[in-house]
Amino acid sequence: MKFCFRSKVEPKENPIPDWLAVEFSLDAQEPRCYKIWVVPEIAEVALILGTLEIDPSVEGWITYLKSLGFEDVVQVSCKEFFSPRADRDR
After folding, report:
1. What is the distance between the alpha carbons of residues 33 and 28, in angstroms, rounded to a whole number?
2. How does strand 33-38 pair with strand 74-76?
3. Which domain of life does the UniProt lineage start with (predicted)?
4. Around 55, how many Cα atoms within 13 Å sit in the side-chain half-sphere?
5. pTM score of the predicted model
């Protein structure tokens, strides 16, 4: 399970759960947005234990993210998020 999303708004009142990683993007190539990715090692365990009760499909994650307060959530390629960082860190 490796899902990545983009959102224009981060929730202000809901804390970000451990199974999500959120980073604000200041990249010149992208519009300013929040990058969100599911941390599979945590999310899979939370699903098995019942701590996270969602449909683990892309649509289920989008619905879940919107319920947390993220807006304009769209799925994006995880490669898009991590490739520039990998190149920059060499």
Report:
1. 11
2. unpaired
3. Bacteria
4. 6
5. 0.80
Of 13, 34, 45, give the one whose Cα is nearest residue 81.
34
Burial label, 12 (beta-carbon count in 10 A; 0-12, 13-18, 19+): exposed
Beta carbons of 37 and 16 less than 8 angstroms apart: no
pLDDT values of the chain reduced to their tens digit, one per residue, 90 residues = 689 999 988 787 778 899 999 988 776 566 678 889 999 999 999 999 999 999 989 999 999 999 999 999 999 888 876 665 544 443
CA distance 84 to 1: 21
- Distance of alpha carbon 27 from the chain centroid: 17
